[in-house]
Write a structure and sequence with these properties.
Layout lengths: L1 E3 L2 E4 L3 H10 L5 E4 L16 E2 L6 H17 L6 E3 L2 E6 L3 H9 L5 E3 L1 H7 L8 E7 L3 E3 L1 H14 L3 E3 L4 E7 L2 E6 L3 E4 L1 E4 L5 H7 L8 E11 L12 E4 L5 E5 L2 E5 L4 E2 L9 H12 L11 E9 L6 E4 L6 E5 L5 H16 L8 H7 L7
Parallel strand pairs: 1-13, 2-3, 2-14, 3-10, 6-16, 14-22
Antiparallel strand pairs: 4-9, 5-9, 6-8, 7-8, 11-12, 12-13, 15-18, 15-19, 15-20, 16-17, 17-18, 21-22
Helix pairs in contact: 1-5, 1-8, 2-8
Length: 366
Amino acid sequence: MSDTADIIVIGGGIAGISAAAELARDVRVVVVEGEAHLGYHATGRSAAIYVRNYGNATLRALNALSHAPLAGELLGQNVLYPRGELLIAKRDEASAFEAHLADTDGIERLTPAEVTALVPILRKERILGGAIERDAQDIDVDRLLQGCVRLLRDRGGTIRQGAPVTKIQRDASGWTVETATSRLSAPIVVNAAGAWADHIAAMAGVRPIGLQPMRRSAVIMALPDDIAGHKTWPLFGSIHETWYAKPMAPGLMISPADEDPVDPQDAWPDDMVLAEGLYRFEEMVDIPITRPLRSWAGLRSFVPDRSPVVGFAPDAEGFFWLAAQGGYGVQTSPALAHICRTLCLAQSSDIDPALLASLSPARLMT
């Protein structure tokens, strides 16, 4: 089966789907997703939290731009819910604690007593202090993803699932993307393939960006029956991000905050990594560690400067990068989708040129 479009988007996670929904306002878009289900990899395994102060300066700018869309402007419904983020410093972590407070906005300093009032299972005697971002919010990732799917389809876009790309080539008329069952042609290809983005570039004969997938693991652990009120606790974790925990039915999601380099894959957790992370968590709480109810892992993909890569490839006309979102892809997806549409369609925009330069793939090609 052969078909044509104005833009082909490769990747059916939140990055590709949200960008396709934006592009479909103006042009005909087809999304190609290798898995049978949308959002199967990083999107479906996200910690699902919006934290304005998370990431470097580029990411914080994207976080700020994404808040209003997530709060209702994008879908006509809010996908954010109160949570808060509490970072905890141990008594020997004063320097890191002060550096964090100096480098963030809207963060409140807490005493050990105030920390344990919020999360009673923490050991007050081991705590120097806490830094809380009360405006951090949970994201309903499924509602966001499915809402973007509806927008895309309502605007005439189409999605082809269970269709791994087998070949990509360019000729004088544009790009051709082949799967086992179809052949698509378009002037522009958006590479939103997550951990596989460099693989897609190699298929297309485009210079890679040096993407490195990193495994991030988590478990669900039940809490003792006598602990009440945990559903309202903030996400809480180490100031050095060596572990974090978040209320999630039926207890706590606990992550060792691992970043182990791996090849693109359907990620699974390493038992030793989980055990080490649970040990670090156990040092800071006064509850017993029980056997996890379930565990999983996902991939967070970075380039060396840890900023996303968004823009046309310098070495391939019509090949657009939308990659390297790291652990920030869900919360920055509205801003990156808007930037993708603006650049792909050469639209006028009030986006800060310095922000665009910090996202451009050209920065990696020097």
